[in-house]
Amino acid sequence: MFDSLRKMFEKNAKTISLKAVEDGRTIPMDEVNDQTFAQELLGPGIAIVPSNGTVVSPINGTIATVMDTKHAVCIQGEDGLELIVHAGLDTVELNGKYYQTYKEIGDQVKAGDVLLEFDLEEITKAGYDVTTPIVITNLGDYKITKCLTGQQVKAGEEVIQLTKQ
């Protein structure tokens, strides 16, 4: 009986795919060198140690916030998923230096659309960690079913799979 109920609910679950926002190596959140992210205080997710400075959208949705300091973008996904893409650690201190944003609040985005670019070399030279956390801020009705860590990825490749119950 329980197996048939489980199968019925699994059949109704919608799968959502989060794509890599950059080329680079994926790491679990607990390896991020910032306790806010490592302890998942903002929510669970994955991080990428980038090999370039181009950041793309991980999902289809709407831009909810673009930080004035250009280092972070919040996206409301078509399915209600809410994400923060945070390019670098403590990079808010740069006050937008070395960053260029391409989207504004209210813009519609597709997975793979360029959100922002940053100068990887200059930010690293300035002493900042360029690791980019992708945080799910409203996990609630979602369950992470796959999280690809410890892998080299290209922007646009699936790194997290979730189901919406």
UniProtKB/TrEMBL annotation:
InterPro entries noted in UniProt: Dup_hybrid_motif, PTS_EIIA_1_perm, PTS_EIIA_component
SUPFAM superfamilies: Duplicated hybrid motif
Entry's Gene Ontology cellular component terms: cytoplasm
GO molecular function: kinase activity
Subcellular location: Cytoplasm
PROSITE patterns xref list: PTS_EIIA_TYPE_1
UniProt KW rRNA processing keyword: no
Gene3D superfamilies on file: Glucose Permease (Domain IIA) (2.70.70.10)
Chief location of this protein within or outside the cell: cytoplasm
Domain PTS EIIA type-1: 34-138
Keywords, ordered alphabetically: Kinase, Phosphotransferase system, Sugar transport, Transferase, Transport
Pfam families the UniProt entry points to: PTS_EIIA_1
Keyword Transport applies: yes
Signal sequence, renumbered to the chain: none
Protein name as it appears in the record: PTS glucose transporter subunit IIA
